[in-house]
Amino acid sequence: MTTAKKTTKAKSTPEVSNRGRRVELQGEVVANKMQKTISVLVYRMIKHDKYGKFIRKSSVIKAHDEKQVSKLGDIVRIYETKPLSKTKRWSLAEVVTTVK
Asked: Which CATH architecture has domain 24-97?
């Protein structure tokens, strides 16, 4: 009796893969004194485990601003990238609204 090996190809499922999807956040520029770096204040809503109330949490994220176009108080959209420095893992996508 001969046994035949069953060969299977690796399946590439686009539903499971994160390739090609950008994680984007929107926030306010709170500091732009660094060279090509901005600090962006981002809010998120979480639900309290016990009481169910929604709480607003905030984070300050360092983002890369290559052309230095964002000003203090601007609303910007940032996206996740590879690590650019010790604290920078985000980059500026666009300036949504500007402050006059």
From this structure: Beta Barrel (2.40)
